[in-house]
Each structure stands twice: as C-alpha cells, then as structure tokens.
Design goal:
226 residues, alpha/beta, Rossmann fold, Arc Repressor Mutant, subunit A, 2 domains, 4-stranded antiparallel β-sheet, OmpR/PhoB-type_DNA-bd, phosphoprotein
Length: 226
C-alpha cells in the first residue's frame, strides 16, 4: 500500500514515515499543502494523511482538491484543533477519519488499517486466498497453517496482491504502489520480488497461487495454472 503524508512538523513527519515504512507501507511525504496537491496530480495513493494547518495550502484545500477530482482515496486528518465543530467540519468536508494531536502511533496505524479495509470492502484484517492467510494488523502470514517469514517489501507486495486477488496487475502498477519516489533500484525489481514470494508462498505446494500473465503482469488467484 502506498501512503502520502503531508505534515509541516518535520519531526512528526519523519516519525510517521519511519513507522509506516516499518509496517510495510510505501511512503512519500511533503511539508506543505501545495506540494501535496502537486504530488497528487500525478500519483495515485491508497490513503493520504493530511495535517490541517499547513503552509501554502491547508488540509481542507488539499482535501477539496482530491474530492473535486472525483478521487475517493481515504483521507485521515491530523490536527491540534479538538473542538466538536472542527471535527464536524473535517468529516463533512470529505475526510474519512480525524485524529487529534497528540496521538499514539498505534492508534494512527489502526485507523489507517480501518480506512483501507473499508476502501477495499473488507470487514476483517484477515485476508485469505485458498489456504494462504495474511493478518494486516499483526503481519502474520501462513499457508496451510505454516507460518511464512517475509521481508517488509515481500509483505507489502503480497498484501497488495491479496487486496487485488483475481486482478491482473502490471509490473508498472505494482512498482508504483510498492516503491516510493526514493527508490533507485533495478528495472526488474518487481520480477525479483515476485520470484522471492513464489519461493516462500508456492514452493512445495501443488496448487500455485501466484501466476504470470504473459505480456500483462501478475495475478494472485486460486487455480491450477502455473
């Protein structure tokens, strides 16, 4: 999942980036509302975390920009304002959730997971395809009851595939969702990580779950095709 953080408090911004990156998200960040709108013009995110009081353009302006583009990306507002009227204004403006500073990182992550579940039509943190399960809250992955240890990027890739099970995802789309702007690796990074996942997810199982669709990309589904 790819997340944008727009927060002008640099220390908090960096803490959020570090925490969400550790949790397996691909994270881009900026420090003012205008830069956020510039980024959102050409990049699609799974969720946006917006501070309300930012220079150049506030969070309400950024949210309005998002919604005027018919973009239903989940938005979580961060603010030091704690009055009921401020919270109502934020939610009525199209925000999906509202978190008052100071807050715990655990609560922010839980609210983010909740928004992402809703946006994907899920009612549980547990994703499953066949005998493969993934717990979005604990990052526990298992197949046929056997735990599988994944790196943060392997986990992020598997979670993205499972959120989109049955859908063919191009290499470009996968790369754009899993790696942020700072990535400077090789052009075959998606193929490399798919091969890592296959060894851990499909090796030793008669029924493979990760499939290549020649000329189009990859798909996670339960069938017998290789």
């Amino acid at each position: 999942m790819r997340i944008l953080i727009a927060e002008d408090e640099k220390d908090l911004n960096h803490i959020l980036v570090q925490k969400l990156t550790q949790d397996g998200y691909s994270v881009d960040n900026c420090y003012d509302g205008q830069e956020a709108m510039d980024i959102l013009t050409y990049t699609k995110y799974d969720a946006v975390i917006l501070d309300i009081m930012m220079p150049k353009a506030d969070g309400f302006a950024v949210l309005s920009f998002i919604r005027q583009r018919n973009d239903d990306t989940p938005v979580l507002f961060l603010t030091a304002k704690d009055s009921v009227s401020d919270r109502v204004k934020g939610l009525d403006s199209g925000a999906n959730d509202y978190l008052i500073k100071p807050f715990s990182l655990e609560e922010l992550c839980a609210r983010l997971r909740s928004m992402l579940r809703t946006s994907h039509g899920q009612i549980s943190n547990i994703l499953s395809v066949g005998d493969l399960t993934l717990d979005c809250s604990t990052h526990h992955v298992a197949r046929a009851g056997k735990e599988i240890t994944l790196s943060s990027k392997e986990y992020a890739l598997l979670e993205y595939l499972m959120h989109n099970q049955g859908l063919i995802l191009s290499r470009e789309k996968i790369e754009n969702h899993i790696w942020n702007f700072d990535y400077e690796g090789g052009t075959n990074v998606v193929d490399v990580y798919i091969s890592y996942l296959r060894r851990k997810i499909d090796s030793g199982h008669e029924r493979h779950l990760i499939h290549t669709v020649r000329g189009r990309g990859y798909v996670l589904r339960e069938d017998t095709d290789s």
